[in-house]
Amino acid sequence: MTETDRRTFLLQTGGALAAMAIAPGLAFASEVTLQGEISVAIIGMGRQGRAIAGELQKIKGVKVAAICDVDPGRLRSGARRVADVTTYETHSQLLDQAKDVSAVFIATPTHTHLAVFKDALAAGKHVYCEAPLASTVEDCRAIASAARGAPTICAAGLLGRSNPVYQLARTFFRSDSVRDLVAMRAQSNDKTTWRNPSSDPAREKALNWRLDPTLSTGLAGELGTHQFDVFHYYRGTYPTSIQGHGSIRLHDDGREVYDTVAATLSFADGSILQYAATLGNSHDGTHEVFFGSNAAIKLAWTHGWLFKEADAPTQGWEVYANRQQFHNEEGITLIADATQLASQGKLKSGVGLPNPPLYYGLGDFLKSVTEGTPVATSIEEGARATIVGILADKAIRTGETVTVDPALLGGA
Amino acid sequence: MPITLATHAMGTRFELVLAGDDPHRLNAVGEAALCEIKDCHRRFNLFDPGSWLNTLNRRAGHESVVLDGLTFELLEVCRRVHRDSQGAFDVTVAPLMHAWGFHGPTGPESFDAIHEAGSRVGMEHLKFDGDAKTLRFTRPGMELDLGAIAKGFAIDLAIELLREHGITCALLHGGTSTAAAIGSPPGEDGWRVRVRTGADDSAKDQDITITLKDAALSVSAPPGRVIESGGETLGHILDPRTARPVTRGSFAAAVGASACLTDAWATALLVLGHTPDTMPQTLRAILPATQAPPSYKPAITEHALS
After folding, report:
1. What chain A residue is nearest to B55 in terms of C-alpha separation?
2. Global confidence as pTM
3. In 10 A of CB B1, how many CB atoms?
4. Selection from A10-14, A51-55, A349-353 with the highest mean pLDDT
């Protein structure tokens, strides 16, 4: 049998079956399709609100009918990016007057989420709330409590659970490809000031809430929360204690919120997650790694790879897997719907998500609202991840070991 | 003290020089300006299957698509330049770019395939409703490629943001083919930008220096992405009227208030090979006196801050 024949044989028989067995039920990751139409609103038109608008524009059947922001510049900028939209200065005005809107996306500063969330539920809206859900544990619990009693759909803006690459990699993680978990790591590197300018100096402080130590949850809260949820999603367990450190390494502009942090999150089984984030360097961006005795899985939001140990058993699907070289290692790209792509001869043409993770998160929420599909990231899980992020920030700020009370997470 | 920021977007590097009193504020404003560029990259990138442009390309063949304000503004400029350049500038050129092999590793397709692709090109085949702000392709298989204008549009948005935040002294360039300036460096009458017109540094005496103050400059040239066809090396600028790569000109440049307009007109001028009477009076065209050799790569090569 020639190499080509062998590949074809494996592809059509064992290889394809193995891949199907590993990735059951994954939808093709190219486009979100909704049955019917829905009218929605975005509350908060900063960078995240604008990003939400940009992704919603791509989903057929979604009409962004209303937006609001207390900052006139942001509202103007947002209106320019959304077709035929009504603008409001406050969320109260929007909720009061935009009667045709059935769902809202909350993208306001973290510490304002609770008030907006409650008002949106009181107005009878379905609610997608950006993460972290809140800046205090008390607010997290209040949001979770409000969501529990709500007749409408609520979802948290944590994107790992709706990400097709992460869903696929999770099937590998749970199917013994990694084998014994020995360590975990997460990093978030991005060279940026985290400072928002304003044409109105009086608005500058309000816009820079992330640099206000009384309001901000720091890098671990604002960024780490999204990554901590990935580990919760994969393992179904939460850390029991957290240690941390931080300092200002680059942006010495009078800020008190650290621009570089590190934390160690310990779990009950003895496993450890090492977390590091900086605003001073962009190398290798944002990613999470699960290190196992058979393989490591590296997840980078739009891409995922499996790095096998030399003594790990070979599986049938590997013969047609796409590979990428990283220094002296080879990573097998984890592609959503690999079987379908392989059958179409397109496996090598697509090695990452065709859309940003946000697109799939928004799509999942809209499907829950319009078709009743299960919510990908519940407010309950969002609250747990947020609380872990807040406690990690506390550990980093104080330099003390913070114990994570399971009751705190259980009741979230 | 000036500060410099940079970002990678639209397949090139954008660099921003800012001068002012508060470096921390300059950094923050500069980052926000570069975010505008990255936002345009995400929206209008033909090579990203998840971009808004590709969504628009997929849908507009089947239905009238409602446009957001930014896309509408950009396409309005495209329509004006297309009209004023008598079709030399045309953002529906994508099928031809594919057929000629400029978008992939396979090289040119057959004559018939190129001919067929040409039938899907022409902004006159766009149904553009200015009141409803909708777009529809009237021929199947049409596709927008905003590569000849999106960079300038992104720079205009960034410059607009810088001005809104009170910046009075800045220079922003994208891939050394389009630059825009706010004000002038202290003690200078503008930002001096050198346009290399020779094949290499040995021909520096042919360079043109342009002083920019509250103005934009774009240069266009056939080289860059090239393909081999019939023993010829062909550059990536296509004449949409003939469906063939441009060979007659060696470079063209345009100076004006808007980077979006100069970017589009630099391409139009290269295709035309002359300055048409219909070009807006607010623009200044710069075309070579003589034909340059094929290896020639004109570019904005440096800027100066005193």
Report:
1. A58
2. 0.91
3. 7
4. A51-55
Contacts of A203 in chain B (CB under 8 A): none
Q: Which residue has the higher pLDDT, B205 or A215?
A: A215
B259-272 and B150-164 helices, crossing angle to 10°: 160
| Domain edges within chain A | 164-350+375-410
Burial class (CB in 10 A: 0-12, 13-18, 19+), B297: middle
CB contact under 8 A, B52 and A60: no
Please tell me if residue A355 touches chain B, with a CB cutoff of 8 Å.
yes
Q: Are B208 and B224 in contact (CB under 8 A)?
A: no
B222 near B291, Cβ under 8 Å? no
Query: Does A164-350+375-410 carry CATH code 3.30.360.10?
Result: yes
The 10s digit of each residue's pLDDT in A226-257 is 999 999 999 999 999 999 999 999 999 999 99
pLDDT at B304: 44
- Residues of chain B positioned with their CB less than 8 A from the CB of A82: 68-69
Give B110's contacts (C-beta < 8 A, 6+ positions apart).
none
Interface membership of B42 toward A (CB under 8 Å): yes
Is the confidence at residue A203, as pLDDT, over 90?
A: no
Structure tokens that stand for B216 in this block: 């934009």
Cα–Cα nearest to A43, from A130, A147, A124, A123? A130
pLDDT digits (tens, 9 = 90+) for A287-312: 999 999 999 999 999 999 999 999 99
pLDDT tops 50 at residue A13: no
ipTM comes to 0.89
Whether B297 has its CB under 8 Å from any CB of chain A: the answer is no
Q: What pLDDT, on the 0 to 100 scale, is given for residue B231?
A: 61
Q: For position A188, what pLDDT does the model report?
A: 98
Supply the pLDDT for residue B294: 41
Backbone angles phi, psi at A81, to 5 degrees: -100, 0
Among candidate residues A123, A136, A20, the one with its CA nearest the CA of residue A66: A123
Q: Does A282 contact chain B (CB < 8 Å)?
A: no
Q: Nearest Cα to B270, choosing from B251, B245, B295?
A: B251
Parallel/antiparallel/unpaired status of strands A38-43 and A103-106: parallel
Within an 8 Å CB–CB cutoff, is residue B24 touching chain A?
yes
Chain A, 84 to 103: residues with Cβ < 8 Å from chain B are 84
pLDDT in the model for residue B98:
86
Tell me what pLDDT residue A2 has: 43
pLDDT for res B62: 94
A14 touches chain B (CB under 8 A): no
Helix axes A14-22, A3-12, angle to 10 degrees: 40
For residue B74 the two structure tokens come to: 């950009």
- Measured CA to CA, the distance from residue B242 to residue A209 in angstroms comes to 56
Q: Which fold has domain B53-137?
A: T-fold (1.10.3980)
> Exposure pattern of A378-398 as b/e (b: 16+ CB <10 Å)?
bbbbbbbbbbbbbbbbbbbbe
For Cα atoms A128, B57, B50, give the angle at the middle one, nearest 5 degrees: 40
Q: Which residue of A has its CA nearest to B50?
A: A355
> Mean pLDDT, chain A, as a whole number?
89
